[in-house]
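Throughout our pipeline, every protein is held as a single compact record rather than as scattered files. This encoding replaces a full spatial description with a residue-level series of whole-number codes. The remainder of this section carries one protein's record, kept here as part of the documentation.
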Amino acid sequence: MGHTVVARLPASERWRVVVGLLHAPSPDAPAVAGATVLAAERRLRQLGHDPSLTYCFWLLTRLASAARGPDFLDEVARLGVPARRDDTALQFVARVADRARSELGRHPESGPFGEIASLALGRALAETVGTEGRSLFGSSLEDLERAFRRHASDRQFGDLAGRFFGDFVARTLRFYVDRELPHAVGGGGLATVGASADFAAALDLHSRQTARAVELFAVGWYGKRRWETLGAIGHEDAQGFVAHALQKLRTALLLEAGR
């Protein structure tokens, strides 16, 4: 039997602020989010040019565009996702995840954030099916294609981008906060494991709600790029969006924290 040792947060002044907020009598999710953004500012800026995050967002845009075409299966095959008409939605999401992991393996410099981007892509796919009032389990590929066709409109793409970046930012903040959260249980305002779980859920919700900051920008960006490229949005365009979206999210999280 073995165990995994998770490194504590760095001892720098900004990270000590995060630790202090987590051990406070009443930990506040927006305050912790803002302090974490400041402490991890350098890495978050680097993520604006991360190839793994860019790839996952690019793939999401191209899947949405593929749903508008005459042959969804042919279009996704060109993206390296070999799907069949009798696939379930869950099987298709797994195929997309396999394709993403294959690409992410080429970018070890992304570290854990490549996997975080891949998980955000899967969550965005699953939640898109959910907008049709269906669960990912039991849904067909046709159900997923229908949901994506609806989200391939300029306005609805804003929702899709918001889901993706909301999940990515939530997981990124938790990547840092979860190093200290177990050590805060039993003292301050997190007296029990249940209280810790409630705080983590509040932090996730706050992160996802803040992602609305990218939705309006995504609407205009997608409409323009889709028209200019006939739906074949390129990696360079996607990277430009990612950098701008992360800047908007950092700013929004800091404003919510009063910083």
Observations:
- The chain has a mean pLDDT of 88.
